[in-house]
Recover the amino acids of this structure.
């Protein structure tokens, strides 16, 4: 018997359903095509008893595979393993792709974001997951866009997130779009960009960091919402690292 009709069914006919969660049960319930997580979802899920084994597996991996005895390096290795573990579990429930977020503490460091993204893709590859099923989730900061540009050239597909303003974030993202290679969240912003009248002159931010930062600062909705959410991701990311550190220090 088919599942009962819901308000999602009419939407499913016109768009792609993407679950923004770390709860695997939700994925099956709503039959989403893709799924995405963030630091807050990972923290919440890792505190649930049914996912405790993923934390312990991440700690065991860090102890076994990290060549450095530096505690920070071990926490970093454990966190990456945990992120990819959640992603692999998610891919068992969705037919499409999973978005895995770069450590939010790197949001203002383009080179570090690129390096972390490569590690994410490599970690999935080591588990037999091809890059075509993985999106690297990167905040819509100036440095984030620089990282996206570099990663797309390498064939690493990205999901630009924390994007809440048509100017300048969406316009900057549109300059990075190559067909369907770059995803934008929320997706409605991307649709708004796609519908821009071609005859209207649009300001370019590609080579103007000062203009990007100034216009973003003056866009209260985009700036304030992105800042609030990024602060939350930083707090929750730090809490997850603290939990992993505690497990690593226990015998």
């Amino acid at each position: 018997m088919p599942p009962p009709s819901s308000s999602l069914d009419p939407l499913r006919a016109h768009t792609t359903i993407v679950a923004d969660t770390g709860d695997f049960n939700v994925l099956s319930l709503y039959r989403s095509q893709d799924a995405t997580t963030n630091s807050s979802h990972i923290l919440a899920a890792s505190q649930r008893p049914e996912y405790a084994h993923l934390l312990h597996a991440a700690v065991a991996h860090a102890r076994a595979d990290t060549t450095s005895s530096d505690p920070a390096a071990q926490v970093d290795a454990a966190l990456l393993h945990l992120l990819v573990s959640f992603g692999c579990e998610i891919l068992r429930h969705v037919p499409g792709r999973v978005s895995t977020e770069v450590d939010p503490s790197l949001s203002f460091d383009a080179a570090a974001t690129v390096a972390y993204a490569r590690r994410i893709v490599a970690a999935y590859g080591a588990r037999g997951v091809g890059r075509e099923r993985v999106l690297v989730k990167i905040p819509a900061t100036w440095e984030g866009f620089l990282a996206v540009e570099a990663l797309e050239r390498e064939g690493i597909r990205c999901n630009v997130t924390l994007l809440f303003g048509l100017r300048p974030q969406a316009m900057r993202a549109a300059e990075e779009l190559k067909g369907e290679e770059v995803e934008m969240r929320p997706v409605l912003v991307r649709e708004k960009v796609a519908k821009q009248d071609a005859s209207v002159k649009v300001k370019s931010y590609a080579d103007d960091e000062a203009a990007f930062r100034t216009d973003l600062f003056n866009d209260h909705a985009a700036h304030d919402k992105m800042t609030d959410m990024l602060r939350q991701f930083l707090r929750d990311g730090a809490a997850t690292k603290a939990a992993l550190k505690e497990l690593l220090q226990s015998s």
Notes: Residues 220-249 form the longest helix (30 residues).
